[in-house]
Amino acid sequence: MKTNRLGRTTVEVTRLGFGGGPLGGLFAPLDDETAAGALAAAWDGGVRYYDTSPHFGIGHSERRIGEFLRQQPRESFVLSTKVGRLLVPQDVDGKLDPAGFHVPATHYRVRDFTRDGIRRSVEDSLERLGLDRIDVLYLHDAEEFFDDALRDGYPALAELRSEGVVGAIGAGMYDTAMLTTLVQEADVDVVMQSGRYTLLDHSALDTFLPACAERGVSVIAASIFNSGLLAVPRPSEGAHFDYEAATPEVLERATKIADVCESHGVTLPQVAMAFPLRHPAVAGIAVGMRSAEEARRNVESFAVKVPAQVWTDLSAAGLIR
Question: What is the H or E stretch that residue 148 is in?
Answer without folding.
Answer: helix 146-148
